[in-house]
């Protein structure tokens, strides 16, 4: 996730403002302070304690001295216990792979992915924006290998791997969760299972502890909220979803096998 500097904001202080309301933001009102007309700006800004600054109203009579008490550091909770232990926040793909602690082999059997799901360059076999339902997924057409078209019912019912498997564990370096794909009634995982269960998992609402924890930095939280705004045109806490952890990397282009532990890496790109 990108790292951006904190933005500073100035707020215009009008004489008719109810100064009692400033106390809830950590400001104190000093009625005896004099106005300073030397500044060309009509603003107030946080200062060190006991160093009042007056508003620069055109008349000294209307000046207000406003000081701000030192801000208290926000306390964040520990990272959730259900996050995958090898998740590294605000790390790139290369860094995150170096940080993976492979201790459990999930599927030692060699398997090949179905061509629809096996990521290949320069023409990935599938294109699906994970912010939308699986019906919007497109795959390479056999008659025109360089063009994408809708998945057919027979495409969706095909086994995702050969030999077939009843459970696949997916991951991406930006997601703090594994995504476990299971076949219906213990049967083989199909393309339909992969796409629908991916969508179901990424549509889960974020909890407070998923965002306000000590593992994430402020830039991480800003990126998650910005992704929510792009997805639904608003940023409200109840609209945050797991897919927002992916930020701009929402286009699914297939899977790659991690031979170390038998898991499957999701290959994503930006829109």
Automatic annotation (TrEMBL):
Organismal lineage: Eukaryota, Fungi, Dikarya, Basidiomycota, Agaricomycotina
Region labeled Disordered — which residues? 38-73
Which Pfam family, any one, appears in the UniProt record? DUF6699
Domain annotation DUF6699: ranges: 127-258
Protein name as catalogued? DUF6699 domain-containing protein
Output the InterPro entries linked to this UniProt entry.
DUF6699
**Highest taxon listed in the record's lineage:** Eukaryota
């Amino acid at each position: 996730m990108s790292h951006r500097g904190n933005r500073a904001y100035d707020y215009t202080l009008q004489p008719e403002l109810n100064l009692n309301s400033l106390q809830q933001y950590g400001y104190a009102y000093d009625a005896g302070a004099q106005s300073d007309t030397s500044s060309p700006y009509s603003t107030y800004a946080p200062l060190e304690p006991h160093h009042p600054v007056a508003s620069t109203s055109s008349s000294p009579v209307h000046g207000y001295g406003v000081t701000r008490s030192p801000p208290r550091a926000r306390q964040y909770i520990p990272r959730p216990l259900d996050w995958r232990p090898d998740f590294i926040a605000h790390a790139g793909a290369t860094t995150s792979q170096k940080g993976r602690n492979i201790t459990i082999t999930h599927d030692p059997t060699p398997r090949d992915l179905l061509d629809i799901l096996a990521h290949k360059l320069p023409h990935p076999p599938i294109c699906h924006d994970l912010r939308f339902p699986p019906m919007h997924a497109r795959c390479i057409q056999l008659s025109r290998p360089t063009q994408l078209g809708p998945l057919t019912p027979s495409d969706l019912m095909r086994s995702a791997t050969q030999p077939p498997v009843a459970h696949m564990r997916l991951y991406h370096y930006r997601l703090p969760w594994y995504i476990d794909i299971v076949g219906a009634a213990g049967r083989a995982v199909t393309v339909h299972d992969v796409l629908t269960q991916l969508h179901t998992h990424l549509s889960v609402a974020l909890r407070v502890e998923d965002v306000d924890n000590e593992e994430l930095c402020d830039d991480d939280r800003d990126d998650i909220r910005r992704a929510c705004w792009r997805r639904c045109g608003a940023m409200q806490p109840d609209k945050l979803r797991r897919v927002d952890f992916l930020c701009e990397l929402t286009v699914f282009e297939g899977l790659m096998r991690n031979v170390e532990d038998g898991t499957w890496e999701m290959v994503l790109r930006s829109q």
